[in-house]
Design brief:
With about 70 residues, this protein is α+β, with helices and mostly antiparallel strands. The chain has one domain. Helices cover about 25% and strands about 45% of the residues. The longest helix is centred in the middle third of the chain and has 17 residues. The two termini are about 15 Å apart.
């Protein structure tokens, strides 16, 4: 069984970034849009058989949310 992949939503100077190993980082002006994209990406990866967890950080780098997407 492969390890769970983690998708991070974190603040950057120009907005919010969606970061995941093996995928080019995506940057959004809105945190809500970044979270929505992270969830869409996690859903796609889970449907391809890869367990994924989305972790959301606030502007102080505190973990404020996490959601698991089990492999389908």
């Amino acid at each position: 069984m492969s390890a769970q992949r983690i998708i991070w939503v974190s603040p950057v100077a120009s907005g919010w970034a969606v970061v995941c190993a093996g995928i080019e980082p995506l940057v959004f002006r809105s945190g809500g849009r970044a979270e929505a994209q992270a969830r869409r990406l996690a859903t796609c990866l889970a449907q391809l058989g890869r367990a994924v967890q989305v972790r959301i950080l606030d502007r102080a780098s505190n973990l404020v949310g996490a959601q698991l997407y089990p492999a389908a």
